[in-house]
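Case study.
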Amino acid sequence: MFYLSLRSLLNNKMRYLLTGLTVTLGVCFIVVSFSLSDGFRQAFSTSIEQELAAIDVAVIPNEVSGIPSDTDNVLPAGSLEKVNKTAGVADAVGSVTADLSSVETAAGDKLNFDSSSVGLWAEDSPFRNESIVDGVAPTDGQFVIDSAIAEQLDMKIGDKFTLKAGDKTDDLTLAGLTETRQADGTTKPAEQFGELVATLWVPERTVYELGQFDPGTYTLILVKTVDGTSVTEVQQSLMSNLGDDVEVQNVQELASEIQASVDSQIAVMERVLLGFAFVSIAVAAFIIYNTFAMLISQRMREIGLLRAIGAGTRQIRTSVVSEAAAIGLIAAVVGIGLGLLVKIGLISLLSSTLDADLELPTVLSVRTVVAALMAGVGVTVVAAAVPALRAGSVSPVVAMSGISVKPGNISRGRLLLGAVVFIVGIVGGWFGLFAASGTTQTITSLAVGAVGVFAGVVAISPLLAIGVSKLLGVLVSRIFGLSGQIAAENSRRSPKRTATTSAALMIGLALVTTTLVVGESVKSQVSETIDTRLVADYAIFTDEDPIPESVATEIENRPEIGISMRGSDGFFTTASGDGFSNEEHYVDGVQVQNLGKLFDLDFSEGRVPSSGTTEVAIPKRDADRRNLSVGDTVTIDFLEPATFTVSGVYQDVLIFDSWLTDSDVIGPLAGAEFETNWMAMSVADGFTPEQAKAVTESATADIEGLTIEDRASFNEEVRSQIDTVLGIVSALLLLSVLIAFIGIGLTLALSVFERTRELGLLRAVGMSRRQMKRMVRTEAIIIALFGALLGIGIGLLFGSSAVAALPDQIASATTVPIVRLSLLALTASVVGLVAAVLPARRAARLDVLDAISVE
Amino acid sequence: MENLTTDPHFNQPRPASTNATATLNRSEVGGASGVSKIYGEGDNQVVALDNVDVTFTQGEFTAIMGPSGSGKSTLMHCLAGLDRPTGGQVRIGTSNLETLNEKRLTELRRDKIGFVFQAFNLVPTLNAAENIVLPMRLAGTKPDPVWLEKVIAAVGLEQRLNHKPEQLSGGQQQRVAVARALASQPEIIFADEPTGNCDSVTSSEILGFMRMAVDDLNQTIVMVTHDVSAASYADRVLFLADGALVQSLENPTPDSVLTCLRTLTA
Ligand SMILES: Nc1ncnc2c1ncn2[C@@H]1O[C@H](COP(=O)(O)OP(=O)(O)OP(=O)(O)O)[C@@H](O)[C@H]1O
Ligand SMILES: [Mg+2]
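After joint prediction, the assembly is written out as follows.
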């Protein structure tokens, strides 16, 4: 029977090409997801390997609990000497770096780095990849820098620069240029992954001064062992010599630790991409199912004939399934190739938009190939299974009697099952949103919910298709007359087919609608929350340097400013309490006496911490999770652990989401790390916001990277973030929508073919080519609109459920973006029209005589 | 007259042609002059039509007969503007088909010509009534209600107008098709073996109806048929052989038709 499958493949090239294309696109998406993340992984691991190439062992500071700081994170003085004395150590080099806040030219222009730091230039280090290619090694008052970076920023040997780190500055002269050789023999470019990260190599005194380190301390000591000794033994001796304060890692441990943190970030991206790839594949499955169902019903006679001359049920089924497998295989292989091309295209697109030279190795792992083939072949075969079963059970008599395209009835069982699955989906979704505890449970129930709702709607949709196309039929026959009426009748004639084709479109549009609805609801609630709860008129934030005391005082004393409040950036630290310990939290220090006057935090119980006490106000989320209420005590780890009493539980999530304490209390506890990073303030009576802002701006003119944020700009920022997410989600769903439209085109093409005789008749009795085209196009519009309506309907359901589950400050009432949704439906029908171009043309070009002679 | 007993019309009134209306208004509504149709080239060349001249006058029922492959369908397709002849001219009403482009040709079919095919005459998604007014709706014109009522009454399908084709018997479907052909009051109706798929009772029903359309409604009908008794309903029978018009028989009876056929195939 296999030659039959093969012949049928060749005879129906165009159809199979398009069916295959839907699979190819889905597979392509999978391949892009995998190969992109594999590429990133490999790129990172190569760069890690290369950095670590010469190193055997690294000595690093032990992780400190509580608030880590630059100066905490160093190895105690004397460590390098101890390392050098350890047996088996051939060479040990201490390294120390300090972040810079800015580098300015003699003319006072800031150099345009993404980030910069000073590093210790160790002249004889065997670990160094940098070598001087021009000028000399840095001595006191000098530095060297990568030649590519120097060229990009127009830095010349002999130029003078001012380096700033915190409140320290230093004037240095550029003494030389370096080049960094990479493992593959090339020279490291100025930018990597679109970032310009510069290290200014300086002698010891400079780095210690700028970084405010104690002399003799290092952030890292790199060790090379004597040839022939065991690295593990040296590692052991180092550990016993240096004690518990430090951590000694061999190169594998070091590499795998770095790799693991990179991997986990890549894995998130990979999963998100795969999720969307899955949606595309699912949509493709609908198309495949539909195509095969139609092909089988068109081949009823042929199959009946085969059955009559003795082909067995099994043989027929095998033949259909082999056909599907062959298509799936070819499509998957093409998809793999296309995926790799798309990945390369994406990278170069990214490179040009970031104006950087991104290079990812092209990796085609076994995993990618297996996943792609499994998805391609698997989906095609599974989707074709039902049509195959049906083909096998065609009785010779039925087929010979010429009932070729009689649509099957919509069985009660199907509707009932659909209803049950739909309800299961609703319950699952409800549980996931409102009752589940833990991420896994939530995600599982949400997945069950989404799949259940989709599957249920698909099962019921033929019934809906009858109703909706009747309704749309009235509409389109008003607009398009007879062509419209016949088109509507056609889409009702085989409601299952219409429903399946629309279902493919429905999925993508439902997800787009969901994000739209949630996004819009959040936007409108956020605006409201900002208006009602944000009493402060504006706030200033610093990027790197803190707001100096003198500036803060100056602002506070200006008459234009009403109430003001200083705050620190959240300390990321650990806290313990009844039933939990060492849990990570952000703790903010603010001037609590003014907190309530500038922000309405919507306390569910208690109040703002009292000034001068060890009280803390916590977000409701944490209170609920840890069962904390007013009066409970928690221990927060600053330099030393300190006990705090919960003074209140607040419900706001938009403005604050941290543990709020009195800055005057935690200032001493946090030591040098405490700084004023932001101030919120209101405008004094009798002054305009513009006046107040002008005063603030002039007071803070010297602070680099300071931003002023008022209600409007805060609102705008939140909105633009939501729009970005919306844009990304829509872009990722675009492919599935594209596949759905190929499906519409395919269904129409098949149905034009199926109805050749009927179309010929219409032409013979006087339907013009134009009317014929219009008829096919109208059918496309009906299918697209039906899909859009279903999708938007489900999207509204999903969206409003999500809104109900979100905290009230973020989204309380569902906002239905009517204009955008109507645009979505309109776009769907327009693209449906485009999908119908070829089938319509084919129908119009039908030779009347040939068509009516078709038996 | 020894075959009279086998004549299905023996006990029925003889299909009338000597009707009063038949003598009225004998103007030409269509025809062909020197029409040829050649398929293929060289050795594969098939002459399907060979220099055929024919005219059809109003209120006349013409049957076309001939052996299989003699060119009957080809002639009809050329006459009806479904196919273009390789030579000669075809006239429908005042139009010369040669001069018409595809668009005009479609309009001509819609407005001036009615069709009845052997099977699959109806659009399955439209009910009987909608199928009947299809050409007019395609043209965007309103059917003449008096005429339409007359046609529908004549078909005798008043009770079945809302039924879809699949709910109608084969004979009923063909009657709907004839009604559609009549409804737009075309210049001429072409029917290619309209009773080819019907039993004899249904056939005579449909043929009787077509006869009546000619007699009572003054329609012009051209019908291709293999059936001798079907041909006897016509006012004249044209015989085709190897693409050429070989004989014409006025006021045919089953007997005279059969005799003619015998001499042709002999
Ligand atoms: N498209 C075509 N290509 C080549 N030859 C054709 C084509 N259509 C018809 N013919 C030939 O033209 C001749 C006339 O065919 P036509 O269909 O008109 O015969 P017919 O009289 O209608 O026959 P039947 O009684 O079997 O329907 C035949 O020899 C046929 O083989
Ligand atoms: Mg024929």
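Observations recorded in class. Residues B 39-40, 46, 48, 66, 68-74 surround adenosine-5'-triphosphate (ligand 1) (CB under 6 Å). The CA atoms of residues 1 and 223 of chain B lie 26 Å apart. We will return to this complex in the next lecture.
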